[in-house]
Write a structure and sequence with these properties.
about 15% strand; globular; alpha/beta; Rossmann fold; 7-stranded parallel β-sheet; two-stranded antiparallel sheet; binds 2-hydroxyethylsulfonic acid
């Protein structure tokens, strides 16, 4: 029997790397795609997958990924994404917004367009877009990121409408507070104190592995079962602004 295949973007760290591991543990041949070659090469060696250096904001780079993957693909996890800055609209840097829209929204477009033929050809395809609770709500300082992640959500919903009748499922997972090595450090441009403050007093934020476990669950449902959306938060986070912090 041919092994099932998966592509995970943003696989160099955090949720992406954990998802590549979780899918490999479920028996998938995993294409680990990200910009940082050294990291994905180490990961691919660890899980018996394949590393493909890829920047999802570059159509040419994504075309190379599609060329490497070949004619069929079962699972695409669009995980590459992220936040930049936490300034109010009045002061936000348009360049941050441009980059967030580029990776969280246009990145989806490039990768989906390039890999849709292979997903279709597999006869049993699944797209999992990694959104965020930021794609459901608004918070002060978050407009660039929340707008982009609302974009991720709407692209997912639209795609499900457009692909109905085809052998391709479309899911979106929307995590809340997840502590990963990169997310907040990137958002605050290396300011570790601000990054740490996000999780201050929260006993157990979600881990990348918690989210990866949920993605693997989505992927291993029978192929007629489409998990449209899955919102996942730590027990300590009842809502975006309602986080239990131990003092
Ligand atoms: C991460 C959730 O709260 O930083 O996607 O917007 S939040």
């Amino acid at each position: 029997m041919t092994r099932r295949t998966a592509v995970v973007t943003g696989a160099s760290s955090g949720i992406g790397a954990a998802t590549a591991r979780a899918l490999a543990a479920e028996g998938y041949d995993v294409w680990c795609a990200a910009r940082r070659s050294d990291r994905i090469e180490a990961l691919a060696a660890e899980i018996g997958g394949t590393a493909v250096t890829c920047d999802v904001t570059s159509p040419a780079s994504v075309a190379e990924l599609a060329g490497a993957v070949g004619d069929t693909l079962n699972v695409l996890v669009n995980n590459a994404g992220g936040a930049l800055g936490l300034e109010p609209v009045a002061e936000a840097d348009p360049e941050d917004w441009r980059r967030m829209f580029d990776v969280n929204v246009l990145g989806l477009l490039h990768v989906i367009q390039a890999l849709l033929p292979a997903l279709r050809a597999s006869g049993d395809g699944l797209i999992v877009n990694v959104g965020s609770t930021a794609g459901r709500i608004a918070y002060e300082g978050g407009a660039g990121y929340t707008a982009a992640k609302h974009g991720t959500q709407v692209v997912s919903e639209t795609l499900r409408l457009e692909l109905v009748g085809e052998p391709i499922r479309v899911s979106e997972i929307a995590p809340g507070m997840v502590r990963t090595e990169g997310f907040s450090t990137v958002r605050f441009k290396g300011d570790r104190a601000r990054a740490e403050a996000v999780y201050a007093g929260v006993a157990k934020p979600l881990t990348a592995e918690d989210v990866a476990d949920a993605i693997a669950w989505i992927a291993t449902r029978p192929s007629h079962v489409n998990i449209d959306e899955l919102v996942i938060k730590p027990r300590a986070q009842a809502a975006q602004h309602k986080v239990h912090r131990e003092t």
